[in-house]
Amino acid sequence: MKRLLAIFLLLSAAFAQDVPKPAEGDYVVRNYKFADGETLPELRLHYSTYGTPRRDAQGRVTNAVLVLHGTGGSGHQFVRPVFAGVLFGPGQLLDSSKYFIILPDNIGHGRSSKPSDGLHARFPHYAYADMVDLQHRLLTDGLQVNHLRLVMGTSMGCMHSWMWLENYPGFMDAAMPLACLPVQVAGRNRMWRKMLMDAIRSDPGYENGEYKQQPRGLVTAIDMLLIAGSAPLYQQKEYPTREQADAFLDSAMKSRLATTDANDLLYAVDASRDYDPSPRLWEIQAPVMYVNSADDFINPPELGIAEREIQKVKRGRFVLLPITGQTRGHGTHTLAAVWKQYLYELLEESGPPLEAK
Description:
By secondary structure, the chain is of the alpha/beta class. The chain folds into 2 domains: about 1-180 and about 275-355, Rossmann fold; about 190-270, Rna Polymerase Sigma Factor, Chain: A (Orthogonal Bundle), CATH 1.10.1740.110. It is built from 11 helices and 8 strands. Helix 10 (about 305-310) links the parallel strand 7 and strand 8. Helix 5 packs antiparallel against helix 6 (about 215-230). The protein is globular. The relative contact order is 0.14.
């Protein structure tokens, strides 16, 4: 079995393939009411898709895959050789000629409705519960998808995957959360997030969200993100001198400042405040392949939380990827070549081959 797996993975994705651009669309919700009672007259969710949905004789969609992005990202982060080029091409695990792949931009992100559109700090203070509800509405109302072959997500999307498993049991055949913990955001994870938010809010240039130019506190916030997403082994190898490390930091900061809005980032980080799937993990029905990386600053393995909590999941398995020259800290979640073998195993466990359905 292991030999067959190795041969399959080698033949299907020896090298990343070029993937065509996905189809794009917008789903609009009128007078959306958030969990805290706030409302938005018009809420836009942007999304990208590959492939087309297939239905069985009962009208159930059999080939839909929902892929959920992380904080500050968008669905387009998956339209890259390291992800789409490894998974979505001909003969690959999520071949887009067979699967209907859905890549949403969450509220507050990408080309979906967000504070920087104009409402600034008057934008509703969405939380993870709202984000997952809107994902579900996009699927069921916007795309007419009534079942998922797979839900998977990275970082924030990993946390959303746990919420999907609990809020919509039976909706998916399997789930693959990548790079998170299925517990309340606490300890150091909460501390660095609060530092980031405080750096923005406490800056006099923030002006209660009505700044004319990005506040200086955004620089500190981005510094926090760069540390949280760092990979010591890789970065020591790539930037072995002081000058090289400084040059990387200067370049990364310039790039992030050009594309990041303080309100958008503040809202996105704050949205994790309601997250805590741990009390309901035992309710999960679908098979779960849960993967973290040992060099992840945000979800450090020494906590032992993942190993403890996965014991509550009836059909759950946890994999801790060892630190290698291929891992990239928290960002390992988007490097599909590093963990695709576990996706293969999950798809094998959770149902017959797609053609047989």
